[in-house]
Design a protein that fits this description.
Layout (H helix, E strand, L loop, with lengths): L5 E6 L24 H8 L4 E7 L8 H14 L3 E7 L9 H7 L5 E5 L13 H9 L6 E4 L6 H9 L6 E3 L15 H9 L4 E5 L13 H15 L4 E3 L12 H11 L5 H15 L10
Parallel strand pairs: 1-2, 2-3, 3-4, 4-5, 5-6, 6-7, 7-8
Helix pairs in contact: 5-6, 6-7, 7-8
């Protein structure tokens, strides 16, 4: 385990009694509330001192309420220092008023509009691109959440938005279960050539065989992302509690530690802490010990 407190850049919390998450109906084992006490128990021996909440795909009409709810949870737990909130960017210029509301919540550091469930052309639609291109005006980043077949058009999307800071969630969800590397491998290299794109080392075990994945299954994907993005543009994320479909929190951290065991202590700190603080503009200072 890391010898210093880490930043978890991909934490989900949800309350099925408060919000509607239609997608959870497909995953009965996690279709229940997951709140801060559950997260604290899940971490076990892993020291997490800073957290970034990522929107949980509630009904669109509840997106702003979800953001305000998490901001209220941050009053209970100061480790929540950032929120990646829902925003309906496909509204184009009309989304401006929504973004103005989000920016009244200081913890909001970025937005996410899930692309993974949309058709291949969604991310290149004029209105969606207009919404994306507004984000720098509000100093907000964008988390990209897709499946690997959507990567080619994501590259085109990023090319059209040079001023937007992007975070690729979950490596673009490659097919780890079947050990498929191409064209994902080539497309990751092409995406990493854009200096405004970071990559989140998260959500990998759920793209592998849930019951039988191994560290060796993950290794070529992690190694390639680090080779392409470098140690300056990769950040750790747990994707908890979605990750519970395939693993427990300490087991994921241990697997990631194994895959990067040859790195320096400085590189380990960048992956598990420092890069996240910089990208999401978090307030925590990096500890010296």
């Amino acid at each position: 385990m890391p010898t210093f407190p880490i930043v978890d850049t991909h934490l989900h919390l949800w309350d099925t009694g408060r919000f509607h998450y239609a997608w959870l109906q497909n995953f009965p084992t996690i279709n229940r509330p997951f709140l801060l006490p559950d997260f604290n128990a899940a971490c076990a021996t892993v020291a997490v001192d800073t957290m970034v909440f990522v929107q949980c795909d509630t009904h669109f009409s509840q997106g702003m309420d979800e953001t305000r709810w998490v901001a209220s949870l941050a009053l209970e737990d100061k480790r929540i220092e950032g929120i990646v909130a829902f925003a309906p960017l496909e509204e184009g210029h009309e989304v401006r008023s929504y973004l103005e509301q989000l920016c009244r919540i200081p913890l909001v550091k970025g937005v996410r509009r899930l692309i993974q469930s949309e058709d291949l052309e969604f991310c290149l639609s004029p209105d969606f691109l207009q919404g994306l291109q507004l984000l720098p005006e509000f100093d907000l980043s964008f988390d990209i959440c897709i499946y690997h077949p959507q990567m080619a058009n994501i590259i085109k999307m990023v090319q059209k938005c040079p001023q937007v800071r992007f975070m690729l969630d979950h490596f673009g969800k490659p097919d780890i279960k079947n050990q498929l590397l191409e064209p994902w491998k080539s497309e990751i290299r092409e995406l990493a050539a854009f200096p405004n794109v970071y990559c989140k080392v998260s959500g990998l075990v759920t793209e592998a065989d849930h019951q039988n994945w191994t560290k060796e299954d993950l290794q070529p994907y992690i190694a390639h992302v680090i080779e392409c993005f470098g140690w300056e543009r990769v950040v750790y994320g747990s994707d908890w509690p979605v990750s519970k479909l395939a693993t427990e929190y300490p087991d994921w951290v241990e697997a990631l530690e194994w895959t990067v065991q040859g790195c320096t202590e400085s590189q380990r700190r960048k992956l598990f802490r420092e890069n996240a603080l910089r990208f999401y503009r978090l307030n925590t200072s990096t500890p010296s010990n």
